[in-house]
Amino acid sequence: MGTYHPDSNTLLRSDSILENCDLINRFAAITQYVLETTVYPRENECMRELRLLTEQHPWGFMGSSPDQMQFFLMLLKMIGAKKTLEVGVFTGYSLLATALALPDDGKVVGVDSNREWYELGRPLIDKAGVAHKVDFREGDGIAVLDRMLLLPLAGDGLFDFAYVDADKQRYAAYHERVLRLLRVGGVVAYDNTLWGGSVAMPRDTPGSSELDRSVRDILLGFNAAVAADDRIEACLLPIADGVTLCRRVK
């Protein structure tokens, strides 16, 4: 029987079969096991093609992870989402995952300042037969959200689910706007909230760049604010680079 101990990690316990590997290799082995066992065997063909295409992009590291998208696919179906929002689209890999999870009359609004990146993945969104569910809007994320908030029904909650994977420096600003656009009971997910684990490490950890230190500081503040926000129920998941789920309760 698995047992929880607050001072240890069950996945990386010392008596693990991987006890001779270093920490990074252990995590890599676990991640690969998850991918090969439950993700890749059921991965939609168009999702696979777009994932591989994204990995070849010079900025491919900005793409969402396939295990994370599998989780979102299930989550969206579990909450019965029909109208969703995505801030930060890149090549559209997560946008495609969302569109596949939505019912035929569902809609995902994707916001990004770079249409060129989105156009790379759009043919695979078409190929998957879900283009009619996608509403891409080019522009600054804050400006687009502000325009949405002016709509007559914005106060009633336009969306069931939102995914924010844009500039981390403005996560707090996105949070205030997205919550107002989300229905009570709806869920918003923020990506990269562990930032390579840096939020749990000293600021001057060897090998960290100035950007890493800056984003780490921003996310420490954001994570603390989310944890204290009484408008939501929050859960920080150690999946991919950290995903914070927030369910709006008021």
UniProtKB/TrEMBL annotation:
BP GO terms, sorted: methylation
Alphabetical list of Pfam families matching this protein: Methyltransf_3 (PF01596)
Record keywords: Methyltransferase, S-adenosyl-L-methionine, Transferase
Q: Which GO terms describe its molecular function?
A: O-methyltransferase activity; S-adenosylmethionine-dependent methyltransferase activity
Q: Does the keyword Lipid biosynthesis apply?
A: no
Q: What family does this chain come from, according to its entry?
A: Belongs to the class I-like SAM-binding methyltransferase superfamily. Cation-dependent O-methyltransferase family.
Protein name (Swiss-Prot/TrEMBL): Caffeoyl-CoA O-methyltransferase
Q: Which organism is it from?
A: Eragrostis curvula (weeping love grass)
